[in-house]
Specification:
The chain is mainly α and about 70 residues long. The radius of gyration is 11 Å and the shape is globular.
């Protein structure tokens, strides 16, 4: 599950960079958690990781997220 979220966030980050979308990945994680079928506590950890390290593509798979799981 962690890998799937990490891959999705990496794709969004790459598209944001390539097309200058300026996506706020913390907000993406918050929105996914609040209103989607993939709602999961893990998304709160991912959101927190992006809040603490904005723009860090590896945030979704960072040690802090994985250690908590």
């Amino acid at each position: 599950m962690i890998v799937a979220y990490a891959q999705g966030m990496a794709v969004l980050a790459a598209a944001s960079d390539k097309y200058a979308y300026t996506l706020d990945l913390e907000a993406v994680a918050r929105i996914w958690r609040g209103g989607c079928i993939i709602r999961a506590e893990l998304l709160e950890d991912i959101r927190t990781a992006y809040r603490n390290q904005p723009g860090a593509a590896e945030s979704a798979t960072g040690a802090g997220v994985i250690e908590q799981r």
